[in-house]
UniProtKB/TrEMBL annotation:
Lineage: Bacteria, Pseudomonadati, Bacteroidota, Flavobacteriia, Flavobacteriales
Leader sequence residues: 1-21
Official protein name in the record: Type 1 periplasmic binding fold superfamily protein
UniProt keyword list: Signal
């Protein structure tokens, strides 16, 4: 009888350990969203030098009370622009712009001016599928005006949604907002 109990326990132990084989598929790694504390927008007017036109700093990454700086833009001017994304919680600061470019098919920057602001933007960079990324862009001002300009970096949005390739952000684009920064802009 004692041998029977010992044999039963051995069989249960054998079945338990064999059910936990080491050849199971490894768990899928989850790609954590990047932390972006800083958005810098550099503009270069035709024939001029590059300047830091807009800067958004949320150094505690809580979205509350970010520091913002803006420079006035000149009317009837074409600027070449670039956006820089940083994580300043790292030391030294991590340049997230590199990741945005490398994963260009998963990212798109949208530039959204209020209706009172007389400017338009054009994408200058594309992903492997020919869809816009928006790290590099052209900004053209027209008449003197004031308004709001919002920069939004969307992760995993639908770049094939109606209007997305022209920079129109709609619900059909979807995705997650990695960072959104709004600036009061004066065109003089």
């Amino acid at each position: 009888m004692k041998a029977m109990k010992l044999l039963s326990l051995s069989l249960i132990a054998l079945l338990t350990f064999s059910a936990c084989s080491s050849d199971d598929d490894a768990p899928e790694l989850i790609n954590q969203e990047e932390v972006i504390t800083t958005l810098n927008v550099y503009l270069t007017p035709e024939g001029g030098t590059e300047m830091l036109a807009f800067s958004y700093n949320d150094l505690d990454a809580d979205g509350l009370n970010p520091e913002k700086t803006t420079m006035p833009l000149s009317a009837n001017t074409t600027y070449t622009g670039r956006v820089e994304f940083l994580n300043k919680l790292e030391d030294p600061a991590e340049d997230i712009t590199v990741e945005v470019r490398e994963e260009g098919n998963e990212h798109q920057v949208f530039y959204l001016p209020s209706t009172s602001l007389d400017l338009n933007t054009t994408y200058l960079d594309t992903d492997v599928d020919g869809n816009p990324i928006g790290v590099e862009f052209r900004l053209q001002t027209t008449t003197v005006s004031n308004g709001i300009l919002t920069f939004i970096l969307i992760h995993d949005g639908n770049k094939f949604a109606a209007g997305a390739s022209e920079g129109i952000l709609s619900d059909s684009v979807g995705g997650e907002t990695d960072i959104e920064a709004t600036f009061d802009v004066t065109i003089q």
